[in-house]
Amino acid sequence: MSGSYELMALIDNAGTVLRWTQAAERLWGYSAAEATGRPADRLLTTGGESRPAGPLTASGSWSGPVALRQRDGGCQMVDLRVTPLPTGETDQDWLAWEAAPVEAGPRSGLDTGMLKTLFGHAPTGVAFWGLDLRCTWYNDTLTGMDFMPGGPRVGDRLPDLLPPGRGHRLEDTMRRILDGGPPSMDLVWMHPPAGGDPELSLSFFRLDDGDGRALGVCLTVEDIRESWSRQRLGLLVEAGTRIGTTLDVMRTAQELADTTVATLADFVTVDLADFVVREQEPLERLSSTEASIPAFYRGGMASIHPGVPEALWQRGMPVLVAPSSPYTDVRDSGEPHFEPVIDTSIPGTWRDHDPDRARVFRQFGIHSLMIVPLQARGKVLGIVSFLRSRNQAPFSSVDVFLAEELAARTALSLDNARRYSRERTAALALQRDLLPHILHSGDAVDVASRYLPADKHGGVGGDWFDAIPMSRNRVALMVGDVVGHGINAASTMGRLRMVLNTLTNLDLPPEEVLARLDELVVGLARDRPEEELTSPSVGATCVYVVYDPATRRCTMASAGHPPPAIVTPDGNVEFVRLPPGTPIGVGLGDYRSVEMELAEGSLIALYTDGLVETREADIDHGLDRLRTALAVPATTLEDLCTQVIDTTLAGKQPEDDVALLLARTLPLAP
C-alpha cells in the first residue's frame, strides 16, 4: 500500500507551478525556488524526454501511479492525486497535487535497486507491469529498441505505448497470465504488422511473491533480426540436403513437409497433380459433386501435432477442393496465394464454400496461410500449403519468398523424378521387347541367361545378350554393353543387336564381325544431322564367340569387353585374356581373334561389367567372386545363373545393369 498523501504543489490552469512544498522538495529534490514557475509536465519525465502531463494539468479530479524524474536523475513512482481548487476567478482554477510514494514491497513487491542490478545492463529488453497492468520499471536496453514508438514510460499501459489494436491484444495476454494462464513465449513482433522481417521476440510471464501471490507481469524483448536471417539461410541449406534424396515423388513431397514444419509453419501439406503420381488414377475419372472436386493427390504432410490431426486426407488419397478456391487458383495460375491474417468469424470468404477446411481452421486456431505452386520447367506439378496456428506471428512477404524458393527446389526434384520414372518405364518396356525372349542355340550348346537392370542412373542401360544358330551346327554367342543409360541406350542396343544378327548370317569370323560393326556405327554417326553432332557418339563394348561342335573349336574376339570365362568339366575356371580391341564406334577397327579347343561339357560364361565392377572394388576382386561362383557345381544352368548372381552381387542392388549368358557345350549328335 502507499503511505499517507501529502500536499506537494499548486498548479495553475496553464500547467505552471505556483506553490512548492517541503514534501515536494524531499520527493523531487528541487527547491521551491527551482520548481516555482516551471511547467509542471517537466517534472513528470523519465528517460530524459518530456512527457505531457495530460489530465494532471487539466481541470478535474484524477488519481493514479505516476513516475517522477528526480533532480539527481533518479526515478520515483508515486500515487498522485489531482484535485481542482476553484479560485472564484474565471478560468483561474488551481490544481492541488497530493502524492504518496509507492513503497517497494507491499504494493509492487519489487525493489528498484535490485531490478537495476539484475537487469540494468542486460542485452535483452526487460519491463515490469503491476497488477493494474501499468509499467513500473524498465531497463535502458528496452528504451533503445524499436518497439514502442514513443519509448517506454513508467505508469502507462501497453495500449498507451503501442499502435491501436496491437497493445490491447498484448494486454489481454498479460491479463490472462495474471489470472493464472501459462507464460506466453516467443511472440514474433514485426513492423509494420503485416509484412517485413520479424524484428523482436516478446515473452511474458507472471511474477509472484514468496507466498505465490501475483505481483505483476515481466516482459522480455529480444532482437531476432539477425538470428531470423540465419534461420532462413539454415532452412535453405537444410532443404538442399534433405529434399530430393531419392527419385521417388512421394518421398520427395514428404521430405519438403518434414523439413519446413515447425521452422516455417505449424502445418504443411504437399499435394501433387495426378500426372506426377503416375500409378494413381487420373483425377477426372474420380467422382465429384457441386461442392467439391478432386484436384490433387496428397503427397506429403507434417504437423507440430503428433498424428497430423489437421489433415482431412492422408498420403496417397485424392484431395477435394471447392470448384472455386485458392488451391485451384494457384494450380491454374502458377501464382502464390497469401493470407497473412485469417478471421474465421468473417463471412463472405472462400471458406464459406469449403466448410471442412473452415472447421479445421477454427478447431486448430489456424490464422495465417500461404499456398505456393510446385512449378518446374513451365509446368505446375502441385501445390504446397503452409499454415500457422501455435505461432501467433502472421506470415510475412519474406516468408512467401522463402516458401517459393523451397517449392521451386522441390519441384525440380519432383520433375527429375517424374521424368526418370517415365523414361525408365519406357526404356524397360523397350529393352524387354528388344532382348531375346527365348534363346535359340541349336544343338551345339545349352544356354541360360539373366538380365538385371540397376535402379540408378537415368534409366536402364544398353546391355544385351544373344545366341544365334549358324550353319553346320555352329552357334554365335555375344554379350554387349552400350555406353550410357536410358531410352537412347536401349534403342541403340536394339540396333546393334539387329546388325549383329545380319553380320552373323554372313558367316564371318569374329574379328571381322566386330570390324564391320565398328565401321557401320562410325558411318551412322557421320551421317547424323548437324544439330545432333553435339550429342554423345554411340559407343559399346562387345564380346563375340563362335563355337563349332564338330571340331570343339571356340573362336572369340573382344571390343573392349571383360574377358570370357571358361569352366572345364572338372570345375577349373580360366579367364581368356583376349586382345583388348577398341570399343565399337571408335573407328579403329583393330580386332583379333583367339581360338581354343573346349572339352565336351565345358562352360562358356559371358557377362557385362556390372557383374564384376563396383565403386568399392576393382575388377580383379569381381573376377575372383565370379571364379568362386562358377567353380561350384550346380544342377542346371538356370541354377548356376542364380548362383553366380547371388555370389557376385552378395545380395546388393547392382550399380550398373547386368547381363549374363552361360553356354554349356554338348556332344555332337550322331
UniProtKB/TrEMBL annotation:
All copies of the PAS domain together span: 1-38
- Where is the chain membrane-spanning? none
| Documented EC number(s) | 3.1.3.16
Tell me the enzyme class: hydrolase
Q: Does the keyword Nucleotide-binding apply?
A: yes
State the reactions this protein catalyses: O-phospho-L-seryl-[protein] + H2O = L-seryl-[protein] + phosphate
SUPFAM superfamilies per UniProt: GAF domain-like, PP2C-like, PYP-like sensor domain (PAS domain)
Presence of keyword Transferase: yes
Fetch the InterPro entries from UniProt. Bact_Sigma-Reg (IPR052016), GAF (IPR003018), GAF-like_dom_sf (IPR029016), PAS (IPR000014), PAS-like_dom_sf (IPR035965), PAS_4 (IPR013656), PPM-type-like_dom_sf (IPR036457), PPM-type_phosphatase-like_dom (IPR001932)
Tell me the GO molecular function terms: ATP binding; kinase activity; metal ion binding; protein serine/threonine phosphatase activity
Q: Which UniProt keywords apply?
A: ATP-binding, Hydrolase, Kinase, Magnesium, Manganese, Metal-binding, Nucleotide-binding, Phosphoprotein, Protein phosphatase, Transferase
Among the Pfam families in the record, one is GAF
Role description? Primarily acts as an independent SigF regulator that is sensitive to the osmosensory signal, mediating the cross talk of PknD with the SigF regulon. Possesses both phosphatase and kinase activities. The kinase domain functions as a classic anti-sigma factor-like kinase to phosphorylate the anti-anti-sigma factor domain at the canonical regulatory site, and the phosphatase domain antagonizes this activity.
Protein name per the record: protein-serine/threonine phosphatase
Q: Which organism encodes this protein?
A: Actinacidiphila yanglinensis
